[in-house]
Structure formats: C-alpha cells, structure tokens
Design brief:
With 92 residues, the protein is an all-alpha fold. The protein is built from 1 helix and no strands.
C-alpha cells in the first residue's frame, strides 16, 4: 500500500512539473503572439498610410493633368474660333 502511495505521489509531482512547464510555455507563446500581432498591426497601418498618401498624390496629379488638358483644349478651341472668324471676315 505504501508503494502505491509513493507511486501516486511521484506521479502527482511529475504532473505538477509538467503543468508548470506547460504554463510557462503557454505564457511565452501568448507573449510572442501579442508581439507578432502588434508588429503586424503596425506594419498594416504603415502600409495603409503609404497607400493613402500615394493615392492622394496620384489624384492630385490626375487633377492637374485634367486642368492642363482642359486649358490646352480651350486654347485650341479659341484659336480655331479666331481662325474661323478670320476666314469668314476675309470671305465677306
């Protein structure tokens, strides 16, 4: 009977050691998960800011190109109207 109690005590001690080791391992894994999660969130936020900035630059460049194109088209139209008016006046 005493031998069975010794075996039970030894097994209980081994289980406590394993439980402690598992708790330590789990704690480390949770810390690593949190650190990785923070890094990924920071990286995602930085990439998002970069993309938003690039989009704003592209949008501004497109607006400037549109304005320049509209001004050029207006200048061509004005020149064509003047040329047409000059031909009409010469024909009269």
């Amino acid at each position: 009977m005493q031998r069975l109690q010794q075996l039970a005590d030894r097994r209980a001690q081994q289980e406590r050691i394993l439980a402690s080791a598992l708790a330590t391992e789990l704690s480390g894994a949770e810390e690593e998960f949190e650190a990785t999660s923070r890094q990924l969130n920071e990286r995602h936020a930085q990439q998002r800011r970069t993309l938003e900035h690039q989009f704003a630059e592209a949008k501004a460049a497109a607006a400037a190109a549109l304005d320049a194109g509209q001004q050029a088209a207006e200048a061509i139209h004005t020149a064509a109207v003047k040329a047409n008016d000059g031909r009409r006046a010469a024909a009269i």
